[in-house]
Write a structure and sequence with these properties.
With about 110 residues, the protein is of the alpha+beta class. The chain has helices at about 10-15, 65-75, 95, and strands at about 20-25, 35, 40-45, 45, 50-60, 80-90, 100. The chain has a single domain, classed as Alpha-Beta Plaits (2-Layer Sandwich), CATH 3.30.70. Helices cover about 25% and strands about 30% of the residues. A hairpin with a 4-residue loop joins strand 4 (about 45) and strand 5 (about 50-60). Helix 1 packs across helix 2 (about 65-75). The relative contact order is 0.20.
Length: about 110
């Protein structure tokens, strides 16, 4: 069987982005978390023979434990481990009393 056959990165991306604690997908500092398909890529979802990696930006005050469990549930049953990498945390304007900002070193800095 071909590694990754039957795993749909677009379905995974849509399911993960629909989660309440997830602000969006995160492809990593250098764009390394991505699945390459003919003519395009799916950022934030990397499918390899030994692992599926999902990169996310989360909403504060979500915890890593909550997000990890929710993302793994959204991916569904898999024949390999699912790693969740949190690339950034965003704070709502109401949390800070000002405008929305990102954690230092994030995409909005």
């Amino acid at each position: 069987m071909t590694p990754g056959a039957g795993i749909d990165p677009d379905r995974i991306a849509a399911a993960v982005q629909a989660l309440a604690p997830v602000a969006g997908l995160h492809s990593g500092r250098f764009g390394e978390i991505a699945t390459y398909l003919p003519g395009r890529r799916v950022p934030g979802v990397r499918i390899r023979a030994h692992e599926i990696t999902i990169g996310v930006t989360i909403h504060y005050p979500a915890t890593t434990t909550q997000v990890g469990a929710a993302v793994r549930a959204a991916v569904g049953p898999a024949d390999r481990p699912v790693a969740v990498r949190i690339g950034d945390v965003v704070f709502a304007a109401t949390d800070l009393g000002t405008t929305a900002v990102s954690a230092p070193g994030g995409e909005n800095s």
